[in-house]
Amino acid sequence: MEIIKKYxxxxxxxxxxxxxxxxxxYTFWNERVNVISRRDIENLYExxxxxxxxxxxxxxxxxxxxxxxAGTGGGFPGIPLAILFPEVRFHLIDSIAKxxxxxxxxAESLSLTNVTAAAVxxxxxxxxxxxxxxxxxxxxPQFVQWAMPHIxxxxxxxxxxxxxxxxxxxxxxxxxxxxxxxxxxxxxxxLDEPFFETKALVHLWKPAGVKENFKKLKKSNK
Length: 222
Known about the structure:
CATH class: Alpha Beta
Largest sheet: 7 strands, mixed
Distance between the termini: 47 Å
Strand order of the largest sheet: 3-2-1-4-5-7-6
Number of strands: 7
């Protein structure tokens, strides 16, 4: 927890307690369902919780914002973000049902009433949201094709509605394939640990006409 307090000094007592329970909860569930590498569970707060919360260094979601966490695995980045933003609605999805059972159990243990979860693929859902967030579940062009149809127009945040994607490495080749506005924010701008030196948050949003382009793309791929 000390690494979280280092970067998020204004946590409430409730948020501190909820974040503090994550180590015990994920250690317990990870012994039953492998949602985090067993070699990595000791790095839970740096490589999973803080990595998730890095999104909050770039955007502070307005109350009432709706977020889909696609490919959430055991609940990242959705669970830490739901703790930090109790007035924001988070819908966590993953295609693997046993991982969603872990998400539901963790959310229930933490009394997170702003979290729902479902075992489903992103391309199968009908819901829309202000943002779709994820941690590098696939190549960006593929993820964009799945996610953009679920981004609603409008918005009440400091960033335009769109995708917030946590990913590492050289993103240039993938971004060049996309007809979208994009912003790449190095996480090292906010976080000092070596783990974040190659990590970034990619914000993608659509200019006028992209909705129609995506409809054509989906049709051409059938």
